Amino acid sequence: MKDLAAPASPWMTDEHQMLAEMTANFINTEWAPKFEKWRKQSEMDRNSWNEAGALGLLCASVPEEYGGAGGDFGHEAAILIEAGRANLASWGNGIHSGIVAHYILAYGTEEQKQRWLPKMVSGEMVGALAMTEPSTGSDVQAIKTRAVKEGNAYRLTGQKTFITNGQHAELIIVAAKTDPSLGAKGVSLVVVETEGAAGFQRGRNLEKIGKHASDTSELFFDNVEIPPENILGGAEGQGFYQMMQQLPQERLIIACEAVGAMEGAVERTIAYARERQAFGGPLMQFQNTRFKLAECKTKTAVARAFLDQCIAEHLRGALTVERAAMAKYWITDTQGEVLDECLQLHGGYGFMQEYAIGEMWADARVQRIYGGTNEIMKELISRSL
Q1: Which of 63, 135, 159, 165 could form a disulfide with 128 if both were Cys (CB 3.0 to 4.6 A apart)?
Q2: C-alpha closest to that of 366 among 37, 137, 134
Q3: Cα end-to-end distance, the chain, whole Å
């Protein structure tokens, strides 16, 4: 497969395209040789975040006054798509740059932005978002984690699970109830700086069926002292609103990763079908192979066109909750279909770690679950009917 970025999309400027090409070349040249090591240790190396920061791949859409490159969501999308194409679904940059940094940028006080964003841009601090609990998935209102005010501080107690970047994160935005009597209106986002935080403990790095190089963890908070200045935005009770406002971008991030993976998988499978010999010629000689690849390439092109349209809408500030839900649900469902066909065309080798396609297939499965399950996406879409 060529170490080249995908062709430019309508929303892409020359700057977006240059960033995409730089990202593709860097990942394929510098990081790809480490993929096997990262899979076996169940996490990327911590210094990979510093490397990405030095290259400008972290928080690309954060304004310059906070250390970022001053880009827009298109810069984040270019990076995410190329990481997906390069078989790097395990990199938690979508959470770090596109979600955690944007919570701080959108809702943080000026002091919070100055304190945290430059360190996230450089990779000095890795960000994580802790919403999900063992007994609650998509039902954010049902969270049990508490942040109780005691004197001039809060005491944070609870448990979170399935947290991306959980082993590496030094800055964790935690959804907690500061006033349980108010339901959703009593939810606040509490920022935990993990260094020296008494009562904070990382649980095990969870074993997953895919994304084996991603550190996905349980997190425990036992009476962790939180200063008032670490309530995101400086005021209680804003957490549910803040989370709902950011979910469309989170779902678009998942769609970006899906399209990148689909494009990378189809490219790899076309190359395999041209090289692999069977019955006296390449697999591409068979009509079934050509037709299946034609289907995969078409589905991928349609997914890219819809994603491009949604990104353009988001850049104009016009992306609705329903459209983001459509993109997340349909593109990740299609990702599963395309990756399954690509694996099938690899035959027995598709099931082996020797080829990237098996890993990409396994990594794709969670896309239909996190960020709100695809069933939840259909419910959101149906409300606009």
Answers
A1: 165
A2: 137
A3: 43
φ and ψ of 301, to 5 deg? -65, -40
Give me the active site residues, please: 250
- Residue 148 φ/ψ, nearest 5 degrees: -95, 130
**In the predicted structure, residue 2 carries a pLDDT above the cut 50:** no
Of 220, 308, 320, which is closest to residue 260 (Cα–Cα)? 308
For 297-336, how does the pLDDT look when each residue is reduced to its tens digit (9 = 90+)? Answer: 999 999 999 999 999 999 999 999 999 999 999 999 999 9
d(CA 112, CA 104): 7
Residue 1 has pLDDT above 50, yes or no: no
Least confident of 134-138, 147-151, 249-253: 134-138
Distance of CA 107 to CAs 165, 239, 341, Å?
22, 10, 43
Task: Decide: pTM greater than 0.90.
Answer: yes
CA geometry: angle 228, 232, 235, nearest 5 deg: 65
The pairing of strands 127-130 and 171-177 is parallel
Q: Which residues sit opposite 248 in a β-bridge?
A: none
Decide: helix, strand or coil at residue 144: coil
Distance set, CA 34 to CA 150, 299, 377, 384 (Å): 47, 31, 35, 45
CA–CA distance, 4 with 21 (Å, rounded to integer) = 6
Q: What is the mean pLDDT of residues 144-168?
A: 96
